[in-house]
Amino acid sequence: MIRSLYDRTMRLADHPNALWALAVVAFVESSVFPIPPDVLMIPMILARPSRAWLIATVALVASVLGGLLGYAIGAFFYEGIGQPVLEAMGKADAMEAFNERFNGVGFWAVLTAGVTPFPYKVITIMSGWTGMPLGTFILTSILARALRFFVVAALLRGFGPPIRDFIEKYLGLVFTAFVALLIGGFVLVQYL
């Protein structure tokens, strides 16, 4: 099923309304859809490298707006369903402690999910669920998604088709290593 969804998504890259299709895919990927917008971005940029920045911008804006939908899903379902259940079970305090821990590292969680292969939608929903400050969520989402989409656009525009395999196979790992080193550097500086 995922393979046929992937193939259909790839065919959208050749459609005359590909930018709109990219916007829809980037929007829904941030809250429910399993296929990342990179699947559309890569062939679109390879076909028209001069539009790389426009394509990355469309993906960025739609993804952040979709992230706000994910945030709302988390906030709505927690307040409407999760919180009353936890209160009935006497676990509201435990959830409050979890929320404080998550929100204490929320910037890093959103940044990591926004640039790595970790599903961004999980963090958008968790951010709403835990009541992460909306401003922190939005700014971090913009930073993370811009980093991801504009790096992909720059690589494709600069190196063309030869870089495609690298992006599809290793860019997620490179971003993951980058975030791990960044977090490790902050932790090291904090304890020195």
UniProtKB/TrEMBL annotation:
The highest taxon in the source lineage is Bacteria
> Keyword annotations for this protein?
Membrane, Transmembrane, Transmembrane helix
Task: Provide the transmembrane region boundaries.
Answer: 53-81, 102-120, 132-158, 170-191
Any idea where the VTT domain is?
37-155
- One Pfam entry name: VTT_dom
Record carries keyword Ion transport: no
Q: Which InterPro entries match?
A: DedA_domain, VTT_dom
PANTHER family recorded: ALKALINE PHOSPHATASE LIKE PROTEIN (PTHR42709), DEDA FAMILY PROTEIN (PTHR42709:SF11)
**What is the name of this protein?**
YqaA family protein
The source organism is Lutimaribacter marinistellae
